[in-house]
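Case study B.
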Amino acid sequence: MAYSEERHSYLDAPYGLKSWLLTKDHKRIAMLYLISITIFFALGGFFAAGIRAELLTPKGDLLTPDLYNKFFSMHGVIMVFFFLVPSIPATLGNFFMPIMIGTKDLAFPRVNLISWYLYVIGGLIGVSVLAMGGIDTGWTFYTPYSTIGSTTNVTFAIVGVFVAGFSSILTGFNFIVTVHRMRAPGMTWFRLPLFVWANYATSLVMILGTPVVAITLVMVAAERSLHLGIFDPKLGGDPVLFQHLFWFYSHPAVYIMILPGMGVMSELVAAMSRKQIFGYSFVAASSLAIAVLGFLVWGHHLFLSSQSIYAGMVFSIITMLVAVPSAVKTFNWAATMYKGSISWESPTYWIIGFMGLFLVGGLTGLFLASMGLDIHMHDTYFVVAHFHYIMVGGAIMAYMGGLHFWWPKMTGKLYNETLAKISAILVFIGFNLTFGPQFIVGYLGMPRRYHTYPDEFQFWNIASTLGAGVLGAGYMLAFIYLVYSIFKGEQASSNPWGAKGLEWTTTSPPPTFNFDKDPIVDEPAYNYNPGGKGVHVGH
Amino acid sequence: MSIPFFPPSASTVSTEMDLLYFFIVAVCAFFIVLVVALVVFFAIKYKRKHPDEVGADIHGSLALELLWTAIPFVLSMVMFGWGATLFFKLSRPPADSMEIVVVGKQWMWKIQHPEGVREINELHVPIGVNIRISLGSEDVIHDFFMPAFRVKIDAVPGKITTLWFQATQAGTYHIFCSQYCGTKHSGMVGQVIAMEPQDYAAWLSGGRANGTPVEMGRKLFTDHQCSTCHKEDKSGRGPSLVGVAGNPVQLADGRTVVADDNYLRESIVNSQAKVVQGFQPIMPTFQGQISEENLMQLIAYIKSLKPATGEKK
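Model:
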């Protein structure tokens, strides 16, 4: 590797901590996010380990009840607000969206840097709550427990989430403007890679939903400190109002987590099959459909909260409708592989893992959307299993797949393929062993957030805790070989997978302004075999 | 160590609930197996055999898109319809239900039977009888969950919620609080004991009762001086409460509302919210002055005030 080529990359020019902390390069900001969300993921994982260890036995023998409640609350707050929401958009989205549409950076590079600082400040405030003893409200902050019941530092945690929320809003706004205004010549809307579509849809949800939860949490803080009667019935408020406001954001937030994951999947399936994505426009439109429908389903969290039955029916039917675009995506991914040329390199392992887990996660949502069945299943471990299949099995599996797929481009280094495959298999097995049994124990009636439980649920809890160990080992392994590759990995070529897309036309890692020559786009996305004249066509 | 897969099935709805569960399990299992089998099959069949090989030039199929839009749509609507029907059934307690009052507070369930017998964290019920639980909360949100009967409902402070069931199998089953409520959330558990009707009668007669909810409500009605204005003969400064419960009430702002439990509750704690036509808003607020249990007893008393036979409403 010649010196001049090395200086060429965004990683090398210029050096120094200051150049990183004051960078306006979307790629460097993406790497800053990558490092910070990894720290939060590890912290959230630590609390998960504590929860699983406690639940090994029916009695509360490891943590006190209050400490256990703080563990699951901090696990939820950290994982949702400081890991999952920013995960794919702020790292892979930040890094690749501008490159994929053929531009030098996001529309507002300084705003992008501010977003990262807001995220870090919010995160630090959130974590400083730990030093003050943590919070015990759950990540859902349900009133009136969060306003009159809890004696922990709820207000401070809310400030953290509030500040980090602005990071999301600014990122969403930046992405939307970038997609509208910064596309390279020839990059029409229907030539956009599906990852860009997915991030665009996610950004809409971020800017429309996040302000609502921010204001809602401010109201909780106001009731706690100023005794304004908003949610507490003793002050003339309505506790169920909080649930409406909270889920108006927090249900769409699930789509903030999974939509970018679906985008990653579309890229990976096409690239690893070297084939045009099946039904491009249907996959793109289904992202928007999910984003829009996602705003109209919040009441399915309130079937049993004294919400009107008729309102419940509307929410139930719209929730069922979300299954349709999700199914459309899944079938299109499967169909993309038909007559593809399928590589058995490590990203494919993550793809297959994602498909299996996301299917289970999505389909188990139908049980809970069906109002009658929700009477029995609401607030049980079935719900816990369901949303972990979506958020961990779906979103994190896609995130890991995307990270493996784009790692050579981001760092310019290749990781160990064998270890990557082992990691994907460990995560898949560990995940199913952790959360599969929770479906069963949920139908048996074990409620969520239980510190102690009746003896007959123990078998499934032991299985779940063992699975968590395997899952943790899988993630740990990936962390080790990925970090190792940065220092000792083989140099990656500009297109190690032989994939289509503008990000593979530039060097690995890319130069500061992404391309040496501004790209002009003259073909649709995933144009692997134009006109069916490929030299070697798989079949 | 036991390895259970299903909770005991001990109420008239538990079989239907399980059937709906199995139906959705079957549909989901079919699609999971189908898609995973296809993906694995394609991955093996179309494995890359040459480094510069590319996939076939296929862009999509409108027919397939329509097919896999229509099938999930129809199936999900069946799940919606069946689920909504079951929910409706479980939201409408039959008229002949026996009413048991349950109040949740951190971290216990306080229960009172119509005959006045009280219990804590234990609920004795006869089998073969429709039981309606009127549920309130003294502090934060709780949730009264009996997995063996497949029923639960939130206990929301400031409201009265209801659920109903009919036990079919005698036995002892779990009661769980399933809405997180603080430190001892997982300790807010109890037992529901379903008994043969004669055993229940024997149990009841052995219980200590210092007044039925109606009797206690009548005493509260006098103690709080409600009776000075709400006279039965309609001569008071407030409306007579005879025959009010369950019937429409004409309000001063022109609306008509049905006097259900929640209307009665609101009219006690915050009387200005809905003022009855023809009366002045002079009733003081009782917000925070009457416990949730006592409110339930007052409501039980008001509901017992029926017009004398022959008298027209």
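Chain B has two domains: 1-39+63-210, 213-304. The remaining cases will be described in the next quarterly update.
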